[in-house]
Structures are given as C-alpha cells and as structure tokens.
C-alpha cells in the first residue's frame, strides 16, 4: 500500500496528475499541484480556512451565470487577468496596448453607422470618440470592426440590468479611409459589483473597488492580433488605483469640451459635447 505522508503527498499528487494524456495539460496540472501545496505549506493552512475557501468558491460559482461572471471578476481583482494579458500580448511599443476584457462584454452587439448614437437617448454628456485604425507602418485599415461597450451614468452595464434591447454597446466599422466615429455619452468611474463573494473579500481590505472612467473596445481585423482594450478619460479619479490593474498611460485620452456646434461626424450638436480623438494601432498577427 502507498504510504502517504506530509512530506511525500506533493510528489505523489504531481506524479498522478502528470499522467494527463495531453502534455500541456500534464504540465499545467502538475505545476498547479506543486504551487497549491506550496501555498498551503507557506501559510500553514488550517482546516477551517480550507473550508472557508471551498465555500467561497462555491458561492462564486453559485452567483455566476451567463450574465454574471464572478470568477472573471475574482481573477481581475487578484491581478491575474492583467498578468495573463501582459504575458500574452507583447505588442510592438507603437501598437495600442491591450487591457482586461472584464466581465461585461456581450456578443452580437448591433452594427451602427459612423457617428450613430449607441447611447440612444440615455442621460449623459454627449461624447464622440473618433480617429483611425492603422497598422504599425501607419497604413489605414478599412473594414475593421470596433466592438464598443460601456457603463451608464449609474455605473451599470447592460448585463447587470433587466433590459431587452442592446444598451450602450454597438459595433462600428472603419470607413475606406480607416476612420471611425462612436457617438455615446461620457463614461463615469464606477465601482465593481460588491454584492457577491468578490465584494465580501474586498470589504475586508483597504482596496478601493473603483475603476476610472473608460470605454471598452474589442477590435477585430483579419491579419492583425485582436485588440481588447479601453480608452480612459484623462484626469479621471482612480486612474492610479484601478481595482483591476487595467490602466496604461498610452490608453489615457483627453476628453475635450466643446460648445454647441459642429461635431466630428459632420453633424451639429445643440448642446455642449465632448470629443476624444484616438488612433488605434494594430499589431500584425504573428
Ligand atoms: C469593466 O471594466 O467592465 C470591468 C473590468 C474588470 C472587472 C470589473 C469590471
Ligand atoms: Fe468597464
């Protein structure tokens, strides 16, 4: 019979999980066993703490569904999502950097024309985000799809609300000359959901649950690396303390105030509005 001791259990478990049929699965699972055991040893994990952790994971699963991604949120606040983004997107310095996807992206957003309003009358200061999509050589990219989403003035994303229609999300396509124009409302900073297991943990710390004001972009163009990123409002609170570690200097953009008058899409605004100009630079696919 196999004699299992405190000293040899890690080796035995590693060997067992090393039998995974796919070599990468074996590599990942044996490393997971090694690090989990090392963690338990380092903190001298008690049985009560182990049970509390299991129950926390259970609650995290129970609160999750197709609209609420509590495990993504957990990964985000632990800095794991951003680590994975950084390790997997070593873009050229001139390319627009990637940041976290977050838990609120919804597939299948409606396709809107250049300058069409994705806020559809929701309260807020009108904002035009406009510019170009280019490659590293400065070549303008036409037909690129920008999938855009953001929170409303109460900090809520569509998936957190009970609504039937697409809300503050849309897809825009770059024109022949590589230009795009998103009409929306100025995003505000917001706090991540605190009413679940992630919030429970944050509440036991001095961590600020806030994110700086931003708009999300997912840009897909054949031949280029898909780009998941945000644009942050320059001067916004929490740029230095983003709870999910998602801010990057290159993604901070001035929101310029304008009196009523001509707008970047060639239209006219009867009320004051903001513009943010940004040229996205895509990394060619490896
Ligand atoms: C977001 O920006 O939508 C987000 C990202 C990570 C965690 C929570 C929210
Ligand atoms: Fe967000």
TrEMBL record:
Keyword Ligase: no
GO molecular function, one term: dioxygenase activity
Keyword Oxidoreductase: yes
Ranges that cross the membrane: none
Keywords, ordered alphabetically: Dioxygenase, Iron, Metal-binding, Oxidoreductase
Superkingdom as given in the UniProt entry: Bacteria
Required co-factors: Fe(3+)
Residue stretches making up the Intradiol ring-cleavage dioxygenases domain: 129-157
PROSITE patterns the record matches: INTRADIOL_DIOXYGENAS
Family in the record: Belongs to the intradiol ring-cleavage dioxygenase family.
Stated name of the protein: Dioxygenase
Lineage: Bacteria, Bacillati, Actinomycetota, Actinomycetes, Pseudonocardiales
